[in-house]
Specification:
single chain; alpha+beta; Beta-Lactamase; Alpha-Beta Plaits; Arc Repressor Mutant, subunit A; 3 domains; five-stranded antiparallel beta sheet; 10 strands; 48% helix
Length: 343
Amino acid sequence: MDSEIRQRFAEIQKNIKWPVYLFDYQGTCIDANNHEKIGEKVDVPDITNGDIVKTGTFQWISVGSRMGVNTYYIALFGSDEAAVGAMHLIHIMFKEEDKELDKNTILRALLFENGKDSFTEEDYEQAGLSNLDALNVVIIDYKGAQFNQVKVVCENILDQVDVIEVDRNHLVLISSSPLEKEILDAIISEMNTELLIPAKASVGKTVSGWNQLHKAYSSAKSAFILGNKLGVESKVFQYDQMMIYHLINEVSEKARDTYFDDYGLVFKELIHDEELIQTAIRFFENDLNITETSRQLYVHRNTLIYRLNKIEKQTGLDLRSFDDAIQFYMLMLIWRLGDYSEE
């Protein structure tokens, strides 16, 4: 077994760009791609469940257990998303040899792309992952709560969903059924009231096949980052409904600056009026419907019309006109992407 582990570790060193270390059961480094570390002794973490353990910027797994006692440890230096994916792949390489592949291990590897070409149909079947025509991925941001607490909330509301921990602030929901906004709103609301945390969710595009799972995850992550960056007024971001945000984000900074200089001068005076900005946002969210907007803002219809007229007077844009509303909305997004407040 010792020679097999060393041989597999040598293969890992050839294919992993991050520093990796092999320790014996006493915590002595016996192999590493940084040879200066060989012979150094460290305190290895307690690994009792065969999973990955994180300590600072290091990730650890135990390998080669004998009679229930860990005999070797592998440590990888790195904690970003790519490094996490690489460690999951290392974990898989050893589990494959021990015939211990499980569903969560495969799903983690697929989410981070590192394992998309590492599995056979037999692996999927063994882990209970049947062929599916549609896969849906949702990222949940839950700063301020414990993973197990959030997992319980999700599983109480959703049927047949896999819940995968990404890091201490995020988890991923994977389902073969569409995860509708109303359901996600209910999950977020439950977290707000029961766990007292300002949670958010982001829905990726639907994909087909397990080896496409990373694309769904990446699109959900993209929607989450862009939604927060642009201050989207929602607790649930949906990739498929964010085309205009992606288009604005792809425009070069120079082009955005030129556009704002040409059309946004009067807009800069308005942006500091929070009441008028929130009025415009609610008006857009309600499809330019005056009655529904006034109801949500708890103001009289005439008060809303007065505010819309005030916006038109300051900007020359009548938000009741579709073309003017589009121009106003694009200017607002450009302003949020740039830094025009002091110009």
